[in-house]
Design goal:
The chain has one domain: L-fuculose-1-phosphate Aldolase (3-Layer(aba) Sandwich). The chain contains 8 helices and 7 strands. A 7-stranded antiparallel beta sheet has the order 4-3-2-1-5-7-6, with helices on both faces. Helix 3 crosses helix 7. The radius of gyration is 18 Å and the shape is globular.
Length: about 230
């Protein structure tokens, strides 16, 4: 029995949520999880259709992207995932999808503005978008540079990855993360709904603007932080 069985099962179940939630089709998208004590990540193998994916197919690697367990090639996005784990030490899962509305915003190279309380329930900022990758970065180490693009926008805008758990990579698509693989997928579902709502809002009223800060703060902090009162608590 694999010593990483529990992690692989978590990552498998999170990956299977992608087609269930219609966040990607065929082989698109991937979810990973990390065991920080063991210094390994588990991730979907590259190019395997979801209906054929099995727990044993999940690939385990160390933080230098070297194979630890598995017979398949890991996701082509693996270097993006490991870079995020190295630089965002509180996260336990990363999800990349090709969901329609989030990808549309990424292809339009536009951040998603905070237009209403559904968005504000989950983050106080716009959904950020990276810069367009340079030719040099594309030809260098594309997946690693994708991660660097994400780090750059978070550093440049002073964003906290524990509060803003999602980003759009320009011309590409969304990455989300969370405390574990399941939460990373949950955030991908939320991001797709926010992206759809924003698209529809601006289609109805192109001059719609970000809601006022007091309303953003009210909705965000009633769900997050020490004074949160939404839900049933722990």
């Amino acid at each position: 029995m694999s010593k990483y069985k529990f992690l692989k099962e978590l990552v498998y179940e999170a990956n299977m949520e992608i087609p269930r939630e219609e966040l990607a089709i065929v082989t698109f998208g991937n979810v990973s999880g990390i065991d920080r004590a063991a210094g390994v990540i588990a991730i979907k193998p590259s190019g395997v259709p979801y209906h054929k994916l099995r727990v044993d197919d999940i690939v385990v690697l160390d933080m230098d992207n070297m194979l630890v367990e598995g017979t398949m090639r890991p996701s082509s996005d693996t270097k993006t995932h490991t870079l995020l784990y190295k630089n965002f030490p509180a996260i336990g899962g990363v999800c990349h999808t090709h969901s329609t509305y989030a990808v549309a915003w990424a292809q339009a190279m536009k951040a998603i503005p905070n237009l209403g309380t559904t968005h504000a329930d989950h983050l106080t900022t716009s959904v950020p978008i990276t810069e367009v990758m340079s030719d040099e970065m594309i030809m260098n180490d594309y997946e690693l540079e994708t991660g660097n693009q994400i780090l750059d926008i978070f550093n440049n805008q002073g964003l906290n990855p524990e509060e803003t758990e999602m980003v759009l990579v320009a011309c590409h698509g969304p990455f989300t993360w969370g405390k574990d693989p399941a939460k990373a997928v949950y955030n991908a579902v939320v991001l797709e709904e926010i992206a759809k709502m924003a698209f529809l809002t601006l289609s109805i009223n192109p001059s719609a603007s970000t809601i006022k800060q007091s309303l953003i703060d009210k909705h965000y902090f009633r769900k997050h932080g020490k004074d949160a009162y939404y839900g049933q608590g722990c």
